[in-house]
Amino acid sequence: MKIITVEEHFTDPEIVETNAKYGESSGMKNLPEKIRNSYNSMRFTGNSLTDIDEVRFDFMAKQKVDVQVLSYTNPVSDMVPQDEAVRLCKKANDILSTVVNRYPKRFSAFATLPMAEPKEASKELERCVKDFHFCGALISGTWQGKFYDDPIFFPIFEKAAELNVPISWHPEFPDGRIQNYYYLSESYSALTGMQFATAGLGWHLDVGLHMTRLILSGIFDKLPNLQFISGHWGEGIPFMLDRIDQIIKPKTTGLKKKISDYFHENVYFTPSGILSKNMFEYMVKIFGASRIIWALDYPYIPFEYCSTDFLMNSDLTEEEKNLIAHGNAERLFKL
Ligand code: CA
Questions:
Q1: What gap in Å lies between CA 86 and CA 124, rounded to an integer?
Q2: In angstroms, what is the span from residue 7 Cα to ligand 1's centroid?
Q3: What is the CA(41)–ligand 1 centre distance, in A?
Q4: What's the pLDDT at 62?
Q5: How far, in Å, from the CA of 297 to the mean position of ligand 1?
Q6: Distance between CA 131 and CA 311 in Å, rounded?
Q7: Rounded to an integer, what distance in angstroms lies between the CA atom of residue 5 and that of residue 328?
Q8: What is the CA(154)–ligand 1 centre distance, in A?
């Protein structure tokens, strides 16, 4: 069965170097030194993000992956000055397009956008979709502490809806204020705090909550065909949807539908390498196979077995497996 995975990361040394020059992100800026050092000591090294021909193809062969949709992990830092960010995003997308062009049957890609310049970001999205046939764009976290329901970002989402391409939403360090408030404590180590604030829990809840904010802003009433892709099985929100609907009703939100309706109709979900049988079965039961797309979060999750077997050995029907493995991605990305 053909396998397409959609949260598969890539980077280029020049993009990393330029980002590092300005600071990784505003979420890291105000952190205590010891937390920042913990993060930096755990940063991914090696060439699995940059290499194509050896490390990546070897992984794809072992995992029986036919097509990876590539993306920069956390594209261009929100600390990069605006003009430089526009230039850097174009450069990042140009580099990615050469990879896709070299192996068009093995790769597609999400664009990286200069979010601080929404007009430029819309133009860049259009360029990437029309000229490079990219699948959409990947955005991350918040932008300098601003949520994407801020009207300044609307033109970007309007353009995605017009082009009929989805936005994939990736976690990033929560804003420094949030980290200090929720995730730091004298009673545990800096490393615990860092993992608690990021991939252990914090940055997932950050994106899940942010997705809910975007729905509350009414964006999907304005742009009903806009689609998002939410990794890590929906970043914690699916389990709370019944409660959210119970309390936050259309008569108070002024929205056309219940909040869960937007999650059902405007969001696709991926495992991002969390191959938990319980979560998988819950998500299929709640949203159906037609809303789930496969993703392994290359190269961050090491699998000592063929992770594709997780899907193939599940109790789903062949039709459901086909949808999750490739059918939904082909339909959504027009591959
Ligand atoms: Ca990831």
A1: 9
A2: 6
A3: 18
A4: 97
A5: 5
A6: 34
A7: 11
A8: 24
* Cα 39 to averaged position of ligand 1 atoms, centre (Å): 15
Q: Which amino acid is at 201?
A: L
Alpha carbon of 246 to ligand 1 centroid (Å): 32
CA of 272 to the centre of ligand 1 (A): 7
Q: Is 324 helix (H, G, I), strand (E, B) or coil?
A: helix
Kindly tell me if the per-residue pLDDT of 328 is higher than 70.
yes
Residue 184 has pLDDT above 90, yes or no: no
Give the tens place of pLDDT for each residue, 255-285. Answer: 999 999 999 999 999 999 999 999 999 999 9
For residue 116, how far is its CA from the centre of ligand 1 (angstroms)? 22
| Two structure tokens written together for 90 | 């174009």
Q: Is pLDDT of 153 > 90?
A: yes
**pLDDT(28) > 90:** no
Strand partners, 178: none
Q: What pLDDT, on the 0 to 100 scale, is given for residue 330?
A: 98
Question: Ligand 1 mean position to 171 CA, how many Å?
Answer: 7
291 Cα: distance to centroid of ligand 1 (angstroms): 19
| pLDDT confidence band for 87 (50 / 70 / 90) | very high
Task: Report CA dihedral (248, 252, 255, 257) to the nearest 10 degrees.
Answer: 50
* Cα distance between the two ends of the chain: 16
Give, as residue ranges, everything with CB less than 5 Å from ion ligand 1: 297
Whole-angstrom Cα distance, residue 287 to residue 312? Answer: 19
Residues 29 and 180 sit within 8 Å (Cβ to Cβ): no
